[in-house]
Amino acid sequence: MEQIEIFEIPSPCKGICQVNNRGYCKGCYRSREERFAWNTLTDQQKRKVIALCQQRYKRYLASKKQQSDEYSSSQTPFEF
Description:
Helix content: 40-55%
Number of helices: 2
Distance between the termini: 70 Å
Structural class: mainly alpha
Shape: elongated
C-alpha cells in the first residue's frame, strides 16, 4: 500500500533567483525549466527535482573544496 501525501511539497526557492554559468539557480539549483514548470509537476516529479538539486549542490561544494585545496597546495610556505 502506498503512503498518501498529505502536505504539499514546497518550492525549494531561496529567493536568490540568479543563475550560474551552467544555467542553474544559485539559490535552489533548479534549471530554468524546473523553476518554470514547478507548479505543474506531480509530487513525484517535484521529489525528483529536489533530489537533483541536492546532487547539484553537493557537486558545487566538492568543486569549491577542490579549488580551495588546489589553492592551498600551490602556495609556498613562508621560510624564516
